[in-house]
Design a protein that fits this description.
The protein is about 95% helix and about 0% strand. The chain has about 160 residues and is mainly α. The longest helix is centred in the middle third of the chain and has 72 residues. It is elongated and about 140 Å long. It starts with a helix and ends with a helix.
Length: about 160
Amino acid sequence: MSKGAQGAAKGGLGGAALGALIGAAAGNAGKGAAIGAASGLILGGAMGHARDVREREEVSHQARIAEERAYQREVIGIRQREALESRHRAENLAIQEGFSTTPAEVREVRRRADEAERRLKELQAQVAEAMKRDKILDEAVAREKEAEKRIRELEAQLKALKKD
């Protein structure tokens, strides 16, 4: 039985009882019961129907959430399978390249790598030496300026002393 039907039944019974009491006080219990039953039936039915609608909406909402979660799980599964397949393809490609590479090619690549590393060390040493020379130069220029400043001060002091 739907909530609307239950509400109508309960409203009708409650309305009839209340209408009978009010009608009895006014001198006509039967008419009061009929009016109360009709009113209760309508109000109870409307309230029950509203409850039915809310429940259907909630069930529909929960179903949409469940569908969305199922879809997300499916998408995650697909992406995981694709990632696994991609790793397998890369692995297989690496194996194929390993089979098609000759020992001479491996030696040549190692020789080039060793040469590149040697050249890198050489250039790094040149850069370090240039930076060292620049630092020495900066220090010498600073010492020269300080000495020239001190020379001017002493010359001015001696000149002042000779005048006296």
